[in-house]
Amino acid sequence: MRIKLLLVIVSLFFVSFVIISCLESDGTIEYSSDDTIHAFELDSIYGKIYPFTIDQINGTIYNIDSVPFTADTIINKILITRLDALGYVFTGDTILTLSDSLDLSKTMEQPLKLKVFAPNNVDTKDYTVEVRIHKQDPDSLVWTKMTSSFFAEGEPGKQKSVILGESIFVYTSNTAEAYYTLLSNGREWTKVKVDNLPANIKLSSILAFRDELYVLTEDNKVYSSGDGTSWNENSALSGNDVEAFVASFPDAITGIKKDEKGILKFCVTNADLSRWETGREVPETFLTENISSTVYKTKT
To answer: What is the domain partition of the chain in residue ranges?
Structure first.
């Protein structure tokens, strides 16, 4: 009798517990409205992990440091190793699964589209993923043929090209003519007549300085031109035993000249190009002819 009574008491207690539990579950459960991606990472590329930036305002995911040019054969089948989001992430009409590899090699042209559904199944956010890749090998020079030879009578031998303003001029051993094209073109070249340019110029010495071209002659004269076709002797810089031009800087032309003892020394023009100022002796291993140079400004 006592056992039966005990069973009844236990049964009543269990029923009471179930009723109380049910009554307490009447409250509404609120799910998160967080529809953002908090972290994104790809598998390693050549053993390196490339950080990705998430722009929450514009909904873009991209790598600031571009992957190597040759990585196109890696990112065309690569895993997303990390994608932190509270809800579900879709690509198209399919839930994104991190165990599936993706072709991300063309995302610079057509970014991968992702849609995030928040846990509340109401809020959503769209993202685009762009894997930036170098367009060419930074350690290689890629050349593109712009036009066929513009020398109608065959190659003229030695040539020298130089930029003047918005044009490229090409001079040859025939100092009576030159060829030019616009920097924005490069495919159409025009032959022009050249006036007063001596036949004994040092062709490789032609350089641009302050919107003019300068050239040396074999007899130590300096000629200049403002348009590339009409040349005149620069009497202030001529007759100073200058053997070669080295480079043109924003404020001066540098060169190599012989001093009174026949020793080669560096020289530089003064501010108003009225004379040459002599510097230190030229090292024996320094080039004294066929010199090409370029000067550019860095960002810092």
So the answer is: 39-130, 159-281
pTM: 0.59
Q: In what order do the strands lie in the sheet containing 190-193?
A: 159-164, 167-172, 177-182, 190-193
Query: What is 159-281's CATH number?
Result: 2.120.10.80
Rounded Cα distance between 254 and 150, Å, is 32
Q: Which residues contact 103 (CB under 8 A, 6 or more apart)?
A: 75, 76, 77
Measured between alpha carbons, how far is 184 from 179 in angstroms, rounded to an integer? Answer: 15
Q: Which amino acid is at 17?
A: F
Integer Cα distance of 273 and 256 in angstroms: 16
**215-246: per-residue pLDDT in tens?**
999 999 999 999 999 999 999 999 999 999 99
Quick check: 105 pLDDT over 70?
yes
Distance of CA 36 to CAs 52, 62, 105, 115, 165, Å? 15, 15, 24, 9, 51
Q: Are 170 and 192 in contact (CB under 8 A)?
A: no
Residue 176 has pLDDT above 50, yes or no: yes
CATH of 39-130, one of 2.60.40, 2.60.120, 2.40.440, 1.10.287: 2.60.40
244-249-253-259 Cα dihedral, nearest 10 degrees: -70
